[in-house]
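INTERNAL AUDIT FORM
Audit reference: QA-55
Scope: verify that the stored structure record matches its stored sequence.
Auditor: D.O.
Record contents follow.
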Amino acid sequence: MAALERVTDFLEQTGTEYAYCDPKPVGGSDSVFRVVFSKPTRTGPVPAFVVNATFTVVGSTLKFTVERDALEHVHQSPGDAIDWDDQWLGIHLYRKQQLKDVVMVKDSKDATRLQTTPWQDRSPA
């Protein structure tokens, strides 16, 4: 099984609630891929934050890390049970949201300029 197929099959079996983009090769490699995860909602179909995961295939073993975590998750072979937890992604989304709240400094002039309106689905009824 080719490395890209291995990553794609793994992602399809995770049952994740997150949306993700197709795996893209990293640095022209045929065994290392980056996948971008996001969590769109009806009120925010284009998420403000995304989480990156890097998948590496070595033989039949698939390894992946989320963002820049030191923890490497390992999936031994295609027939093994999938060990996946959406909380791995959720933690990184939460950290990014918290960082934005700390870094964002607004003054009174920004209040009107930065007003946002909730997304409204304008699909035909």
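Auditor finding: record pair retrieved intact. The chain has one domain: 3-111.
Action required: none
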